[in-house]
Amino acid sequence: MSTTSLETVSHRIGGLPTAGAASRTAPVHDPATGTVLRRVPLAERADVDAAVQAAARAFASWQDVSVVRRARVMFRLRDLLERHADELARLVASEHGKTVADARGEIARGIEVVEYACGVPELLKGQLSDQVSSDVDLLSFRQPLGVCVGITPFNFPVMVPLWMHPLAIATGNAFVLKPSERDPSASNRVAELYAEAGLPDGVFNVVHGDKAAVDALLEHPDVAAVSFVGSTPVARYVHGRASEQGKRVQALGGAKNHAVVLPDADLDFAATQLTAAGFGSAGQRCMAISVVVAVGAVADALVARLREKALAVRVGPGLDPASEMGPVISAAARDRIVGCLDATPAEIVVDGRGLAIDGDGFWVGPTLLDRVTPAMDAYREEIFGPVLSVVRVPTLDAAIELINANAYANGAAIFTGSGHAARTFRRRVEVGMIGVNVPIPVPMAFHSFGGFKQSLFGDHHVHGPEGIRFYTRAKAVTERWPEPTGAAAERVALHFPSAD
To answer: Which domains are delineated in the chain?
Structure first.
């Protein structure tokens, strides 16, 4: 198929699809075959400005819409997302490569945030302190910021944006989403569902692009806040660049998530859970387990079980119901992962290089490394692929020390039958999200998601209560309503006011 006959994904600005001013485009591949499905425009500054201005115009009236009406839009969006979940899942599978079942799972977790946003009348309730001084009351409440921006990664094209825009919009902001140009189509479909839910034009906009679009958003004077999820180098860049412009920023970076397995753990259960957590979505999850920390004598038996399960994973196209794991996102990602494996001195127990599947897809099979050390690149780097590394340590203390020495601090898990060991682990380990016999401890939407160290730049985690705080700012009002007396004004008191 010629490039001229390919569909071009449009921006969604002010409620309308538009090709914009961009002369540059990028291919959107089917990772399972390597074929180009469609092309996506790479926005220029004029496109970004049009999206931000559309959002700013919409914000002027949307901020005054009652919280009850905003909540009703979220209720309708939630129903539409559920109704179209299979359609969205197949769209994600075709552009990302993950299985349809996995894509359905990400959509379900995103819908949870919409459900949380449905409670915005309760979430935005202010506080009142009566009679803080003689005839004086004190109240506080929260208001929206203005135009908020989301810059989101390829690995969760529905869920991660849903961590952001429902809370921003429900709290009264307008939103511009810049999704990954690698799998852009699901974002446009969500924009259509917003319109069907009754959201006014311009409150939610989608602009596609690369670094030029990102920089234009970070520097635009009418953008009040930026939410980002991606790699640590880009998170650091986004945080620094947007902060310099005086914007509020939350930027979530990379991860190297560890799972500690103690000798008293149920090894069959642990191996099953770790296989799913390491190889699901081809390891392309910010909460994927990439390091298994085998404590003491458990290592040999655990590696044997992990080997057996890795070899049994059915790898194939995401749209094939028989597949359990799909390809990685691009040829560049495949080559980077294979290059890391080519260079590693670790013991390769299961080798995913050279996986042969019909077509020109971007395939790397499940890979298991043993006797990995902290000095190896396979340990230090965020591989972001279907590679599970086993590090052997003698004690739980050594496992905790290993995790705490890592630059990333997104999540960690422990598999054990000991409540004492679990409590020690959760109190001492220095990460933002902890699982006890749960390998991927992503909090429910009514809690917040985020890590420490190089996994988070900024003060706020995503969604949940911290999401509400991020997308709003507080006002405190001290008020007095003196009774009209007609008498002369009371004597002026020049001392600092106090409660009396």
So the answer is: 3-253+455-476 (3.40.605.10), 257-436 (3.40.309.10)
